[in-house]
From TrEMBL, chain A:
Pfam families: NIR_SIR, NIR_SIR_ferr. Keywords: 4Fe-4S, Heme, Iron, Iron-sulfur, Metal-binding, Oxidoreductase. It comes from Ruegeria profundi. PANTHER family: BLR3264 PROTEIN, FERREDOXIN--NITRITE REDUCTASE, CHLOROPLASTIC. This is Sulfite reductase.
TrEMBL record, chain B:
Residues 70-104 are annotated as: Disordered. It comes from Ruegeria profundi. Residues 94-104 have a biased composition (Basic and acidic residues). This is Sulfite reductase. The lineage of its organism: Bacteria, Pseudomonadati, Pseudomonadota, Alphaproteobacteria, Rhodobacterales.
């Protein structure tokens, strides 16, 4: 886990002091809202539909138990007793009062956390594979490099007024759990001839113009990577469009100029930038790596785990869905579902946060992760501790066995909170989860990712959902468009629109018809929804969704 | 032909709390849409908006929102304004904690 240096601490203290004074000047009337707004956004403070919202960065989704406890404290002391984990591995507080925000930021600083660059046209929180450092399929832990990127991008003088925001995601595995192809830059760590480096993907993104990222370089060695990334951002900063914010992201720049032109420009810029990187970054990376040294994995018998697995069907079901393979065979990766059927996806109460912090401290080498799928992960757990963890989670409504299933839904806050939203997403997620829980079908349906956004900006990643749902305002009424076949992994794809949208009270039955069509079409229970869709295409789903249109055409 | 003017209320967010507020005919800010001034004259609406926008030390982001006369005062015409006057639908938070507005 990264520990702040004296520089980090002093920097944050200074920033928080500045913001406290800015809030005071706003309240006493010496700053207008126009003057204050960019200052508050630089510190993660938004004004939403009903209240302010503070977005706190959780760099690469990694937390210690002390940090998680502090997040619980903020929820309890200055909010309404809960926090919302987001699709960018951050946490949002939906109800802070303006005068309290400086105190909240000071409390965060006590545990080495902040809300800097969680908004604005800057390089945002660098996200990473939530199984980093634990996954059995990993080449290297991507978090030291993510931390280097955090330090490089924070307050970077060249990158404070860019055409638009810029998002970087990094993974150490071939199996992409970090959606790297839907980011401005996606990095996949690879090893070539004993040298660690990264494959660089550029120009992915969702929003109103969804694009799958393209390969900018198949391999850049670590020694050159920071210079190469600086060159890439620099090229876009120069030629990226500033005339139209909807055309400003690097995906448009890549699309308009072509990947070959961009590559040539980056290579040219790289030669200019490279001499400025004299190895200090690599020395720093070495130092950062020491912070992320894996824990000494304890040894011991896993017999108690095996006996619980055999005798307790509830435990077995939870293991089968919520556990992933760990690089140490006696250990496991536990995903704690923050998606209890009918609850708000990603919302955890202060009490639940403390319970998860306690579990991390007692059983999981003091580490927690937040996934972009809005769940919490205990990355390193000895298998013999799984029964005790499961028992504790059950007490606090955290033991839902639904990871990767139809009720493990990503949903943005939508019009229940967000000022940009055009329709609600949370109640749609709640109703879908409740409905399929009633049907007792979700384990039979198997792997199926539903992702819901309440506006075209696509914070809910609907384009890469196996079933994507986009909430829109059609003539003053909420209307939901459906896409099928999206995929956020290494086989990334943008979903295809099914056709006309559905009203608020029609959307859950529509999803049910899609699922029924899948169950009818699949060749066996082994064939997932996505595999079936790829095999049979849109037609059977369209027929199920729009029976009237089919009848008319006949 | 210019579009016909539809009735409006002046709405904004409170600077300190962020809560949704409305301008009353007595120049007071209320958290309850039914107490807002329903403006039926376009020129008057512009004046009231200016009156609101001047108060930057207590409010944020004033604008004119469509509304219609209801039994107990102005009511929203669009679902966004209905959510603004009520609060989120997943928890009884915000205005619903004080239960000023039953959900339609």
């Amino acid at each position: 886990m990264y520990r702040y240096s004296e520089f980090d601490t002093a920097f944050l203290e200074e920033r928080n002091k500045q913001f406290r004074a800015q809030v005071e000047r706003r309240i006493d009337g010496s700053l207008t809202e126009d003057e204050f707004k960019p200052l508050r956004l630089m510190n993660g403070l938004y004004l939403q539909l009903h209240a302010y919202m503070l977005r706190v960065a959780i760099p690469y989704g990694t937390l210690s138990s002390a940090q998680m406890r502090q997040l619980a404290l903020l929820a309890e002391k200055w909010d309404k007793g809960y926090g919302h984990f987001t699709t960018r591995q951050n946490i949002q507080y939906n109800w802070p009062k303006l005068k309290d925000v400086p105190d909240m930021l000071d409390a965060l600083a006590e545990v080495g956390m902040h809300a800097i660059q969680t908004s604005g046209n800057t390089i945002r929180n660098v996200t990473a594979d939530h199984f980093a450092g634990a996954a059995a399929d990993e080449v290297a832990d991507p978090r030291p490099y993510a931390e280097l990127l955090r330090q490089w991008s924070t307050d970077h003088p060249e990158f404070q007024f860019m055409p638009r925001k810029f998002k970087i995601a990094i993974t150490g595995s071939e199996n992409d759990r970090a959606v790297i192809k839907a980011h401005d830059i996606g990095l996949q760590l690879i090893e070539r001839d004993g040298v660690l480096g990264a494959r660089v993907i550029v120009g992915g993104g969702l929003g109103r113009t969804p694009m799958i990222g393209k390969e900018l370089s198949e391999f850049v060695a670590f020694d050159d990577l920071l210079a190469y990334l600086e060159a890439t951002v620099s090229v876009w900063n120069q030629i990226g469009r500033r005339d139209n914010k909807y055309k400003a992201r690097i995906k448009i720049t890549v699309h308009e100029n072509g990947i070959d032109t961009i590559r040539a420009k980056v290579n040219e810029r790289f030669l200019q930038v490279r001499p400025q990187f004299k190895g200090a970054d690599m020395a720093l990376l070495e130092e950062i790596k020491s912070h992320f040294a894996p824990p000494v994995f304890r040894e011991g018998s896993v017999a108690s785990f095996e006996s619980a697995y055999t005798t307790d069907p509830v435990f077995r079901s939870w293991i089968d869905t919520n556990i992933a393979p760990h690089k140490n065979a006696d250990h496991a990766i536990v995903t704690i579902s923050i998606k209890k059927h009918g609850a708000t996806p990603g919302d955890a109460t202060a009490e639940q946060m403390r319970v998860m912090a306690d579990l991390a401290e007692e059983f999981a080498y003091d580490e927690l992760r937040i996934s972009h799928e809005q769940n919490v992960i205990l990355p390193h757990v000895h298998k013999s501790d799984l029964p005790a963890i499961h028992a504790k989670l059950k007490e606090y409504e955290l033991a839902t066995a639904n990871i990767g299933l139809i009720s493990d839904i990503i949903a943005c806050p939508g019009m229940d909170y967000c000022a940009l939203a055009t329709a609600r997403s949370i109640p749609v997620a709640q109703q879908i989860a409740t409905r399929f829980d009633e049907l007792k079908l979700e384990h039979d349906i198997g792997h199926l990712k539903i992702k819901i956004s309440g506006c075209i900006n696509a914070c809910g990643h609907h384009h890469v959902g196996h079933i994507g749902i986009l909430g829109l305002d059609r003539a003053g009424v909420e209307n939901y468009q459906i896409t099928l076949g999206g995929d956020g992994t290494e086989t990334a794809a943008i979903g295809d629109r099914t056709g006309p949208g559905f009203a608020y009270d029609e959307i859950v039955p529509a999803v049910e018809r899609i699922v029924d069509a899948y169950l009818e079409q699949r060749e066996s229970s082994e064939e997932t929804f996505l595999q079936t869709y790829r095999r049979v295409g849109m037609a059977p789903f369209k027929a199920a969704l729009y029976p009237e249109a089919q009848a008319n055409a006949a | 032909m210019p579009r016909t003017f539809t009735p409006k209320v002046v709405t904004a967010n409170d600077l300190m709390e962020g809560d949704v507020i409305y301008l009353t005919s007595e120049d007071r800010w209320t958290r309850d849409l039914s107490e807002a001034e329903l403006i039926t004259d376009e020129a008057h609406a512009q004046v009231r908006l200016l009156d609101a926008q001047r108060q930057t030390d207590i409010i944020v982001g004033a604008y004119l929102a469509d509304a219609v006369a209801g039994e107990n005062g102005p009511e929203p015409t669009h679902f966004r304004e209905d959510f603004r006057r009520t609060g989120p639908s997943n928890y009884a938070h915000g205005k619903q904690e004080k239960a000023t507005q039953p959900r339609a």
